[in-house]
Each structure stands twice: as C-alpha cells, then as structure tokens.
Design a protein that fits this description.
By secondary structure, the protein is α+β, with helices and mostly antiparallel strands. The chain folds into 4 domains: 5-241, PPM-type phosphatase domain (Phosphatase 2c, domain 1, 4-Layer Sandwich), CATH 3.60.40.10; 249-346, 2-Layer Sandwich (Phosphorylase Kinase, domain 1), CATH 3.30.200; 350-527, Transferase(Phosphotransferase) domain 1 (Transferase(Phosphotransferase), domain 1), CATH 1.10.510; 537-568. The strands form 6 sheets. Strands 13-14-15-16-18-17 form a 6-stranded antiparallel β-sheet, covered by helices on one side. A 5-stranded antiparallel β-sheet has the order 1-12-11-6-7. It has a 5-stranded antiparallel β-sheet with strand order 2-3-4-5-10. β21 (397-400) and β22 (405-407) form a beta hairpin.
Amino acid sequence: MSTLSILAGQASDKGLKAVNEDCCGIRVPSTDLLNTKGISLIVADGVSSSSGGREASETCVRAFMHDYYSTPETWTVKTSAQKVLGAINRWLYGQGARYDHSGQGMLTTMSTLVLKSTTAHIFHVGDSRIYRLRNNDFERLTRDHKTWAGAERSFLARAMGADLNIEIDYRKVSLQKQDLYFLATDGVFDFVHAKDIVRLLQGNRDNPDKAAREIMSLALTNGSNDNATCQVCIIEQLPDEQDESFYQKLIELPFPPPLSSGHVIDDLLIIRELHASKRSQVYLVQNKKNNEQVVMKTPSVNFDDNADYIEAFLNEEWIGKRINSPHVLKIVDPPHQRRFLYYLTEYVDGQSLRQWMNDHPQPDLQEVRNIIQQIIRGVRCFQRLEMVHQDLKPENILIDRNGTVKIIDFGSTKIAGIEETHQPFEQNFPIATIDYAAPELFEGVPGTHLSDIFSIGVLCYEMLTGHLPYGKPLSLRNLKRVNYVPAKYHNPTIPAWVDAALEKCVRIKANRRYATLSEFQMDISKPNHALIKQDHQALIEKHPMLFWKSVALIQFVIILLLLFALLR
C-alpha cells in the first residue's frame, strides 16, 4: 500500500535583529487526515514596521495548523484553507488596534503549501516565496505583493491583517516523485543566489534539515540584515496509481450471508426485509443489547468483487456520520465490532414521499411547501459540507408519523474533498434517477448544488401536478427539443407566481436556475412580481427556437397564399 510521504526540514534564526519575527511549521497528520486533509507547510514573516509582527506570524502559523485540520473532511483544500486564512486575517485586523490605531498593528506575510494526494495547493499573501525544484528546473511558484517607489525602494502591497478582507493568491500544481519544494522569507532568498540554493538542495537531498540550516547560514554569512527562515520538502512517495491494495481496506470484511427473519449477526436480530434491489438489501433489525429497532443495509453479492461499488457503499456511512440534521437519516453505531460489511441507520416509522404522493393526489399547497421546506433544510446540510446528493427522488425521502421529512440513500453523493484524493478506479455508476436528474448530468458535466436544486423543483412540480415538468423524462437526445409544461395546465388551482418559480427552478440551463435554495423557498411562499413579469416576457426571449419556427411557419403560409392568389 502506497501513500503520500515526504522528507522535510526547516530552520529559522533571528539573525542581526533583536527578536525573530518569522515563524514556520510543518504538519504530517495521522493516516485518516492525511488522506482527507493532506500535509501542510507554512512560513510567515511578521512585518517589521508593525507593532505586533511577531505575534501576527506566530498566530498565523499556529492557527492555520490547528484550524485547517478542524474543517470538515468533505471540504476541498481550497475551501478549507481560504475559510481558515480569512478568519485568521479578520482576527489579526481586529486585534491590530491594540498595537497601533493606524491599523498597522498585526501584519504578516504568509505562504502555505498543502500536499494532498497527487496535488500541491499553494496559498500566498505578501513577499515570502515558494519554489519548486524539479530535475534541474528551479521555479518560483508565487509572486511578490510589492509596490515599488523608485528603483531601490519597495513597500509591501498586501499582508495578513492589513485589511478586513484579504485577497489570497491560490494555485495548484501536480506532484511528481522527487519534487523538492523550498519555502523561504526574504531574509533568505534576497541574500543567497538561486544557483547556490539549488546546489545546497541537491547536495542534501537525503537530509532536508541540513539543507535548510546550510541555506539559512549562508544567507546570514552573506550579510542578511533580517530574520532568516526556510523550509525544504521532498516528495518521497505518491499514492500508487495502479496498486489496487490501496483499496484493500474496503474489502477486508466479507459480505453478509443471505439473511431472513430470525437470523442474528453481531447481536442484531433480523425482524423482516424492508426493501431489496439488485444493489442492496435493507432490513428492520433489533439490537439485542438495548432492544432498539434500527435498519441494516447490506451490499448485494452481485458486486462482491467490485471495488468501486464497495467504496460507494462505505461512503454512505462515512457521509451520514458527518451530517447532523433532523432531516437527514442518522447513522447508528453497531453494538459490536462488525464481522460483515453492512451499516446501521435509525428506523423511520412512516412512509416514502412516493407513498405520500399516491395517498395525496391533490395536496394542499401549504402541505407541499412544508415538505419542500424540510427537504431544503436537509439539502443545505449537504451543501455546507460541499456535497451534492445527486439522487433526490420520492423513494429517497421518508416522512415519519409526526410529519418530519428525512433524506436517505447517499450512494450517489458527490464529496468535493474526497474527489481531490487520487482514486485508481474510474467511477462508472449511474448518478441520479432519470426522472429527477438535472440535464447537465446527461451531458457528462459534474453535478453541483444547482443539480440538487433542479431535482427539488421536479419533486415540487410532481407533488402539485402528478406529472413531470417537461411531460416526459429528459435525455441527452431530447434536451434541446423539450419545453416546460406550465403546472397550471395540470392543476388550474396553482397560482401563476408559484408556476413561475417552478419553471425557473427546473430550467435546462443550470446558470438560469435559482442560485440558492432560499430564493426558491421564498418564491413559492409569496409572490415575486419581478419573476412573474419575467415569466411573461416575449416569446423570442423565452423560447427563441420556437419563436423563429413560428415566424418561418407564418411566412410559409403567407407565401402559399400569395402563390395561390397569383395563380388565380
């Protein structure tokens, strides 16, 4: 099994200054966080002209090293780091007044390198630097944020703590084995020539600590009048792209044997089967330790040798454990260590939304709003964690006897943070159910939160009308030929303003839908006069193809009439 590993070292010295206002740090976390968050390196150079430069740099390094690893594992590196660095910047800006009422109290540069899977993510503010040495090519990966006043004098144009909101440079580059990354403050690279840095890095590849110390010492010997700090990181090993043992942990547990009422596994008594498909089985079971009824989901033996399928199955439990909402199905811990591959959830005593729709063919508009609002609350929990459910349909929504709505089945859920992790297998499982799938999914475009918004619009439309908004399921073949069927065509009691909101929610083009669920929720709760006006816009704007077809047809009829008149 191969995972990301590095050799790293660092060195820092106050040099000729009274105190060292630089700070640096390296963190290589445990295996789980290594896969989901990665390895981080950071250097910060407290601005000498600010009163709290030293505290600013130390705060920046320590806070990032702690807070970055506390962000949700489902977030991307970019989201996690930018949110954390933004919060650090606001804190430095607010605290800076303690030192200097001019707003220059706690300033520091910051250059951060996060290594995750096979990618390096770079975040940068100020004039510290990050370089990469690949073979003999020594390339600077950051740009200095400086403003020059003449040929000899420059000022720092951007720093952490200088403004309430900070623009952070971000880029990502692919990793290669034996890549060498070099992070340094200006007290080093301003006083050591690039060819000498490369010579010392190449000469000490087996000892990055020694390389960092020698480069720092050379800077001081060469007359550096500033603090001197540098870090050296060598990519020792990358996740093996062909090694299927990387996923061996997914198949360590055997699939459960065929189960039926009365069977017991791991102190769980099978009461009855609730649902079965070609992909999984779902059972109502009783925990014999506390007599609590829970639900067991087991994988289908049809996929016992399919690593993709097993990964998706395990992801369902992983996702459920990271969402805490009354409107998302809760994962339950098993009473004992599992001997088979399965997971447990709470038991929802109620019915699916499909069954509810069958029982309520002409529901009250307020009842539909109540259900949709609860679905939206559940989906927002996915969005906050940078996840897209991708399979919202009536069968995946349960309503308990108290009217509480719960979203289930996370097998198709897209996790932004996990997608950054190298996976040796291509995902080929169907995403979403055709009747509720967003059009972009048919075109091979990755799902976004706008895809879930589309599905919610279809659910709302179907609950109110009993039909699909385009009259039939969408497909790649018919995307450009279908037209929205007004909901009031099926249900004349639906207000025009609700119909207008439904039409916007299920538009074919994702960028023309609602950008947020709160907008849709608002527009089905009270009239949006601007939307109604837009809904009554000219045909050429709403359906240009239909407009020009109509024009062509009218012209054709006129020509026929003229020809007929001439012939007579």
